[in-house]
Amino acid sequence: MARNQKFALFMALAIIGGLGIALSTFLAVGRAHGAPPDMARIIAGTLIVALAMGWAMFFTVRAHFAQDEFKRQREISASFWGGWMGIAASAPVFFFIAMGGLGHLATVSAPPVRIFTIGYLLPTIFGVIGTIGARFWLRRRDS
Question: Which of left, alpha, beta for 30 (phi over 0: left; psi -120 to 50: alpha)?
Fold first, then answer.
């Protein structure tokens, strides 16, 4: 199997398998009915998500080492610089929210847990977007 095919196979296994395992958490925890789930379901969901992260990490590492050294170094640089630039780009958004944002114009109220989740994921999402942008920029620069 060619190097690029191995990389694509391992990445597909990481993404599809990891998402599939992680989404099965909804089957273990069940639908939200207003009351919090019992402790056994919370522990089961947590273990399933940990398994999904382990699966994704294993196949992502395999994909990383399936590449040649030049591409590996480019990926490392893209994740470092793009991730940090993405996190830095999320700082003004955090400041905007901390200063009140559009609070006086907002008509939708969300539960505090949902707001916390969005705030928790904000730097992660910006970091991923920055990494993808840096990866495309480095790939275009090197071609």
Answer: left
